[in-house]
Amino acid sequence: MKESYGNDFVVLVDEDGKEVEFEHVYTLEHNGEVYMAFIPAELNLEEQAEVVIMKIDEEKNAEGETEEILVAVEDDEEADEVYDIIMQKMEEDE
Predict the structure, then answer these.
(1) What pTM, to 2 d.p., does this model score?
(2) Nearest residue to 75 via CA among 55, 46, 50, 51
(3) Domain coordinates of the chain in residue numbers?
């Protein structure tokens, strides 16, 4: 589930219904999927950023219309591959 919160911030709701604010840091198209990288919005300078990788999926709503949702990347190998690519691209962009 995704809810907009400004240009670069979103509030993600986990499986337990807990809302957590994240900053969107990168979007990547890879192998026909769209992945998005987020870091916690409430990050202290001393803390190392935990990067959360999500991908865009589609589901039908109650009216039968298709809408995009963010879902966690469950496969560790897929998440690691996407994480490595995103980190490389972000370093190149700097």
Answers:
(1) 0.77
(2) 55
(3) 2-93
